[in-house]
Amino acid sequence: MKLPPSPVRAPVRAAVRAAVRAALRPALKAGVSPTLQRRWLDASALALPMPAGVRAGRGVLSGVPGRVLVPERSEPHTAVVYLHGGGYVTGSSFAYRTLAARIAECCGSRVFVPDYRRAPEHPYPAAVDDAVAFVRGVQATGVRRLVLAGDSAGAGIALAAAGRLRDIGVDVPELLGLLSPWVDLTFTGDSLRTRAGRDPLLRETWLRECAVGYRRFESAEHPELSPLRTDPAHLPPLLIQAGTDDILFSDAERLARRADEAGTLRSYRRFPGLWHDFQLFAGLLPDADEAVAAFGGEVHAALHTA
Fold first, then answer.
1. 295 lies in a domain?
2. Is 93 a catalytic site residue?
3. Residue at 296 is within a domain
4. Which of 92, 109, 152, 191 is flagged as catalytic?
5. Which intervals hold domain Alpha/beta hydrolase fold-3 (predicted)?
6. Which residues have a Cβ under 8 Å from the Cβ of 69 and sit 6 or more positions away?
7. Range of the domain at 234
8. What are 10-62's pLDDT values in tens digits?
9. Nearest to residue 83, comparing CAs of 210, 173, 167?
10. Does residue 12 lie in a domain region?
11. Helix count (H) and strand count (E) of the chain?
């Protein structure tokens, strides 16, 4: 992918950062109803350009509705299951269809995005239950090689689901692809303090409200709620990306360090000056184009290398 020269990137990055702060941050704050947040994010997603040549469809697998994004050329026996972010409370397959389509385009495989049940109406373990059921549903269609991926809260669900699949003896994915992962509901990361004024998207107060709604009466230390605590030694290889201005940057740093120590880190890439979930803005932000292309390339390698 040919990217603009660096003098062009800086003003584009500044413009997208300002748009994120003005258009999305007002919805993602404590006290705003989940219904309004969901409508707001779905409406905002209309501004993101869909790539040409990727078909979108809807359906239900194992009782879980969702979307599938199909590139022009795709291998029928490979797939990606992508778990959208949104603080466990908002986000949808519609809001994330553009990012999923770009990943599908880059990796040459179908990308399935389940609409797992969201908090606070459906607290833990509903989202993890749905993710596990959906993965098994995709595998039942004849998919032999699968990547499990997600961003933010979706990355946390992906980690929890991979651990459960392993524990119940189901074939685990070839790779776990995690963008801006939120994997610690105990809020012990120092980036919550050091990046609070640099991330244009998220506030700690909103994250805490989301966490309470999601975990309900469970301890935040439960390994499926804070999968940073899960032993990564027996998990699939981890592919991690994070922006250094992400308020949850510490989660990515600590997870990458633990996976590296366990020998399960495939790659970890930091993007200087980028915020939480910046990859969503692929098609508008050259840094996001680069990140998604790199992510898709590694997913393709995992799915097609013997």
1. yes
2. no
3. yes
4. 152
5. 80-279
6. 54, 55, 56, 97, 100, 101, 103, 104, 110, 111, 113
7. 19-304
8. 999 999 999 999 999 999 999 999 999 999 999 999 999 999 999 999 999 99
9. 173
10. no
11. 9, 8
